[in-house]
Design a protein that fits this description.
The complex is a heterodimer. By secondary structure, chain A is α/β, with parallel strands linked by helices. Chain A has 11 helices and 16 strands. The two termini of chain A are about 15 Å apart. The model of chain A has no long low-confidence stretch (mean pLDDT about 95). Chain B has 5 helices and 15 strands. In chain B, helix 4 (about 170-180) runs parallel beside helix 5 (about 190-200). Classes of the chains: A alpha/beta, B alpha/beta.
Chain lengths: ~300, ~250
């Protein structure tokens, strides 16, 4: 079965890509398989200047998932463009740059600098692990709309806005991104959480709070995508706890046109490649005759309208 | 580096809460240097892998020996694995201790569960004709291990917190006295111990193996990052792939 999908700016061989922050800039995974197999690659977040991030410990295991508080460590957008992206360009797969910042101006600067080198941007207004910026743009609809619109005006490639689940009304944020001119949505980022060690009586993560990811967050993501799909006419890249082809199908039925695999890459560095190989057979097993038929399928739509959205 | 289902060929307790596991598979043939580690998926119940250093290698038999301490639910569950079971292993990972250097007399300093990777290192050093002196620190006699094995390789001094084995005290009580009798030191243990050793032996060439909570174990997630001195342009090192072994002055402890 043909599992290719076309989204704004992205011709995907398959709907599976590694999620931002879980794949670095690809080098470490290139020793395990050919990155050209991937539907796309979402790069680790870029900020205007080099960032060290938070102190260790930065991760903690939880039931069916993990907490992380890396704190957007990256060498800065210039170095990413000059030293990381050239390696990835050797592969035949679209690149999506994750754009982050603490101020509107920083978001604009990063987007304007990196957009020339990639096929699309993922606007990160939802990182829970930095003190300034990040998630505040993703929890206030007015700020979300403004930062989307300002990044759109400097970007030469489509912009997917990455939504935070740490809000009461996800639809309001999705609509704000749409009003700001977003070409698509990416959802969800991690859920803010905490783990306390009974022995030390203190949070394990030095930042105290961290972002929860893994299968634990999947039902939240599925619900949010299901809600947003009904309310906003934008393609969605779905993510949160994907480990199996059933998970992918569930995401697409809820309304995702493509999916990103995050922390599962830590358990099994080959996971994306394995899921790509297994997906066609899984789709046939559930009686789907095309990938388009899956998208939004839980909303009792026909294959034709699914096609329209993709 | 590869992901492989390795077979458990031996698994037994060697000290209080401390277990020895011998794994068979191709990863054993790919170990480059002493001090490298494997990243173990204990079971589906645990989301993150557990990094465990390699204590010995028998490439001819495709076997590696691991020594691990029960420190939480994950390592507790690992103790239940039986001989013949297969284990999901990623490895070998990281940069180990350099043994090609012009070392003549080496001091090895190990603390607690930091001791295992130093055993394979000591064997390699002795094989190259390098004189090895070892200082091992444990909490108590019942938590001690590998002491006799190290004795086959050179002089061994043991310190314990309670004096139940060797001298009561810290490894630094002994390493200070030994200063001048070695040109290079190699240390692995708790960060406080590494810091004390690095300060005490400030003017001696040294290598430290560090431990940190890890995510991916291959360098992609940036969970296990440590600071570098201010004059280092990059500003960080990843314990899993730039380390776990660093030159003593390469990282900030």
């Amino acid at each position: 079965m043909d599992i290719s999908i076309s989204l704004p700016g992205l011709d995907l061989k398959n709907p599976i890509m590694p999620a931002s922050g879980c794949f670095g800039f690809g080098k470490e995974f290139a020793q395990f398989y050919d990155l050209s197999d991937l539907g796309a690659i979402i790069l680790k977040a870029a900020t205007g200047e080099k960032r060290y991030g938070n102190e260790a410990p930065r991760v903690a295991e939880t039931s069916s998932g993990m907490l992380n508080a890396i704190g957007l460590q990256n060498p800065g957008v210039e170095k990413i463009v000059n030293e990381e992206i050239p390696f990835l360009k050797a592969y035949d797969t679209p690149l999506i740059a994750n754009v982050s910042g603490s101020t509107m101006e920083e978001y604009e600067h990063v987007a304007a600098t990196i957009c020339k080198e990639v096929d699309a941007l993922e606007l990160n207004i939802s990182c829970p692990n930095v003190k300034e910026g990040g998630v505040q743009f993703g929890t206030d609809p007015r700020l979300a709309e403004e930062v989307t619109s300002r990044v759109k005006s400097v970007s030469t490639v489509p912009v997917y806005v990455k939504l935070s689940p740490n809000v009461t009304d996800i639809v309001a944020l999705a609509k704000a991104a749409a009003s700001g001119g977003a070409d698509g949505l990416s959802m969800i980022n991690t859920l803010t959480g905490m783990k306390i060690d009974p022995a030390t009586r203190k949070p394990i993560i030095s930042n105290q709070t961290g972002g929860l990811s893994g299968p634990a967050v999947k039902p939240v993501a599925i619900r949010m995508i299901h809600q947003v799909y009904q309310a906003v006419n934008l393609p969605i890249i779905g993510m949160g706890g994907i480990e199996t082809t059933d998970d992918i199908i569930e995401y697409m039925l809820a309304g995702a046109s493509a999916v990103a695999v995050g922390s599962a890459n830590f358990k099994n560095p080959l996971i994306c490649k394995e899921l790509i190989e297994q997906l066609p057979e899984a789709l046939e097993r559930y009686g789907f005759s095309s990938i388009e038929e899956v998208i939004g399928g839980a909303h009792h739509e026909t294959a034709a309208s699914g096609l329209f959205r993709a | 580096m590869r992901r492989e289902w390795m077979e458990i060929v031996e698994h037994n307790a060697v000290a209080k809460d401390t277990y020895r596991m011998v794994l068979k598979g191709q990863i054993a043939e790919e170990v480059k240097d002493p001090g490298q580690f494997v990243h173990i998926q204990v079971s589906e119940r645990f989301f993150l892998r557990r990094p465990v250093s390699i204590a010995d290698v028998h490439p001819d038999k495709s076997e590696i020996t691991l020594l691990y301490k029960v420190l939480g639910d994950g390592t507790e569950a690992l103790t239940e694995k039986q001989t013949g079971d297969k284990l999901d292993v990623l490895g070998p990972g990281g940069q180990g201790f350099p043994v090609e250097e012009d070392v003549r007399e080496a001091l090895i300093v190990g603390g607690g569960i930091g001791v295992p990777p130093l055993y394979y290192l000591a064997k390699q050093l002795v094989e190259q004709g390098i004189k090895v002196t070892t200082v091992l620190g444990f909490r108590s006699k019942e938590e001690s291990f590998l002491v006799e094995e190290f004795k086959d390789l050179g002089a061994v001094y043991v310190t314990t917190d309670d004096g139940s084995l060797g001298e009561q005290g810290l490894v630094t009580d002994r390493t200070g006295e030994l200063k001048g009798s070695f040109d290079t030191y190699f240390a692995c243990g708790p960060t406080v111990m590494l810091k004390a050793i690095a300060n005490q032996l400030d003017d001696v060439r040294g290598y430290l193996s560090m431990e940190e909570r890890m995510g991916c174990g291959i360098g992609a997630c940036f969970a296990c990052v440590v600071h570098t001195p201010e004059d280092d342009e990059k500003g960080y090192r990843r314990v899993c792939c730039d380390g776990p072994v660093f030159k003593a002055k390469e990282v900030v402890l």
